Amino acid sequence: MGSLQPEDVFAPVLHTERLALTLFNMNDEDDLEFVVMMFNMQMPGGGPTDGNWTGKDIRRLSYSLMLKPSDAHGRLSKDAAIYLARLGDATGPRIGVINLCRRTPIVPIDIGYMVLPEHRKSGYATEGATRVLRYITEEFGIKEICLVTDDSNIASKKIAEKLNMVDGGHVMMSGNKCVVFVLPGMKKLEGQDFPFWGDGEEF
Ligand SMILES: CC(C)(COP(=O)(O)OP(=O)(O)OC[C@H]1O[C@@H](n2cnc3c(N)ncnc32)[C@H](O)[C@@H]1OP(=O)(O)O)[C@@H](O)C(=O)NCCC(=O)NCCS
Fold first, then answer.
1. 81 is a domain residue
2. Where in the numbering of this chain does the N-acetyltransferase domain appear (predicted)?
3. Which residues pair with 10 in a beta bridge?
């Protein structure tokens, strides 16, 4: 039986007017350090071991939430579908993360984002998420993407609107209700379990 070999599946760099979006390389120390820092800032105390997020936690999470061959034209990606937003070109400073995650087979792949506090409210999350969504739907060919957020997250709900997403019902994350936005024509979610760490195979 042939087994799939991990390969380059996703575009290494995407460009927008002001940003270069580079595919997260979890074997690159600087990339990993940036994502660890973002998680410790955004979800302090949320790391799985003692609260503090480590490189190992980020690698485990990234592997766990990778798009599966059934999402990716039968191909096994060696990378998570996570892009780092950099100012200017692909060597510019990292200012944010835009991620596509497969948490569970019963909820479509979700798009998410984080931007460094000092760079917020400048349109970067909207600009980066718009490009990543266009890439994955129109260029890569995945038809169903959702966006899951807390009902109180005004910025995130505005971004969903700017991405032309529509009311997609709700899911449950660790017992909390989260609102969902979907692409027009997709089915609404009805309270499905949305496990942050995913329920797929872990490497
Ligand atoms: C959510 C987040 C990524 C937004 O990043 P950003 O680069 O500031 O977003 P944008 O500049 O593209 O702003 C999008 C819209 O939200 C608005 N907005 C941004 N921050 C806001 C805030 N704190 N309160 C209210 N509105 C806000 C912007 O004004 C803009 O709306 P407008 O075009 O009508 O003015 C950023 O706040 C963040 O990293 N938050 C923590 C992580 C998070 O919550 N991620 C989303 C999880 S689903």
1. yes
2. 82-165
3. none
What average pLDDT does range 44-52 have in this prediction?
A: 94
- As a whole number of angstroms, the distance between CA 180 and CA 110 comes to 9
> What is the Å distance from ligand 1's center to 139 Cα?
26
How many angstroms does the Cα of residue 167 sit away from the middle of ligand 1?
Answer: 18
Q: Whole domain around residue 97: which residue ranges?
A: 13-142
Give the binding-site residues of ligand 1, using a 6 Å CB cut-off. Answer: 42, 112-115, 120-126, 149, 153-156, 158-159
CA of 147 to the centre of ligand 1 (A): 14
Alpha helices in 51-141 (DSSP H): 55-64, 124-134
Mean pLDDT across the chain, nearest whole number? 96
Closest atom of ligand 1 to CA, residue 127: 12
In a domain, 26, yes or no: yes
Asked if the structure places residue 154 within a domain, the reply is no
The answer to whether the CB of 82 falls within 8 A of the CB of 24 is yes
CATH code (residue 24): 3.40.630.30
Is the pLDDT confidence value at 95 over 80?
A: yes
